[in-house]
């Protein structure tokens, strides 16, 4: 097959490309330039998609003996990922930009261009297992539970998954680093990237305030309705947040307060106790079903609402373009805008992704 290897400049994508070459595929490496001003992205151990990463990717491609190109996706990245991120926070929702990047950039923009150029598949260094059985994709958790990335890939469509390759799905990270060293790849010991690549200093609140300005509102006790303080914008908060609330007086019971909900129209940020964060019902929309068909009636499953968050057993049901989820064990810190991923527990083979949807409301 003709395979386009997306090479971020890290160890995972380099080894994934190497394995594609070893399997006999005709491989071409490509690095995505995602910022018109690369210096504004994080560098070093916290980097992602920077000039430094482009150089590392090129060196890895040279060692593998494959052609290498840099494609400029900066404008689309800004529109699809950065502006969406800002807009979601302004609307009182909590987005995951990595999910959006995978969906809109790596497996929409990149795959579309790859297909137009005659490639059969796009290969990445994601940790997830993928197979296609009788033309139907099966996306599963990776063998390395600590590095599993099936959550951020669960928003991909069946057609996108048919043209995807994840060579690292059955591997563990230490083994990938060891393989990189054996292949002479200089990125073998390169630290993993962290946090949000387009926020250089990691200060999300400051980044959003620069984009959205101040939108003053009240900090409100959810139980009594009492105004506890002022804030400069709901975009500075997320559901479940405890620190940085700007409330001088402690709660009546002396326990910490948490953000319970955000109301962008009124500007109210409602706070309360940790027990009030518990969620037993999730309503979600815009579902995507990797296996092409929605759930047939109520289905037992396991749900995950954050890339590195915990899971909970649940019963999910698809009704039209909506998914309702009843949790058998409450979850905390579940916010509108997050993606909920449904899994079927499958011992040995890795949990199967049944589908994903965007959280609209909770109760």
Q: What is the total tally of β strands? A: 17
H and E string: EHEHEHHEEEHHEHHEEEEEEEEEE
Strand portion: 25-35%
Principal-axes shape call: globular
Q: Termini separation (Å)? A: 48 Å
Round the mean pLDDT to the nearest integer and report it: 92
Query: Can you give the helix content as a percent range?
Result: 25-40%
CATH evolutionary superfamily of the largest domain: HUPs
Structural class: alpha/beta
Query: At the first level of CATH, what is the class of the largest domain?
Result: Alpha Beta
Low-confidence stretches: 40-47
Largest sheet: 6 strands, antiparallel, barrel
Task: Give, in spatial order, the strands making up the sheet with the most strands.
Answer: 12-15-14-13-16-17
What number of domains?
Answer: 3
The helix tally amounts to 8
CATH topology of the largest domain: Rossmann fold
Q: How big is the Rg?
A: 21 Å
At CATH's second level, what is the architecture of the largest domain? Answer: 3-Layer(aba) Sandwich
Function: Catalyzes the 2-thiolation of uridine at the wobble position (U34) of tRNA, leading to the formation of s(2)U34.
GO molecular function, one term: tRNA-uridine 2-sulfurtransferase activity
Region (Interaction with tRNA): 147-149
Organism: Prauserella marina
Describe the structure.
The protein is α/β, with parallel strands linked by helices and 363 residues long. It folds into three domains: 2-125 and 167-189, Rossmann fold, CATH 3.40.50; 214-276, SH3 type barrels; 278-362, Elongation Factor Tu (Ef-tu), domain 3. The chain has helices at residues 11-22, 51-64, 74-90, 97-116, 150-153, 158-162, 173-182, 204-212; strands at residues 2-6, 26-33, 68-72, 121-123, 129-133, 136-140, 164-165, 217-221, 227-231, 258-263, 268-272, 279-288, 299-304, 311-319, 322-331, 339-344, 352-362. Helix 2 links the parallel strand 2 (26-33) and strand 3 (68-72). It starts with a strand and ends with a strand. It catalyses: S-sulfanyl-L-cysteinyl-[protein] + uridine(34) in tRNA + AH2 + ATP = 2-thiouridine(34) in tRNA + L-cysteinyl-[protein] + A + AMP + diphosphate + H(+). Its EC number is 2.8.1.13. Belongs to the MnmA/TRMU family. ATP binds at residues 6-13, 32, 125.
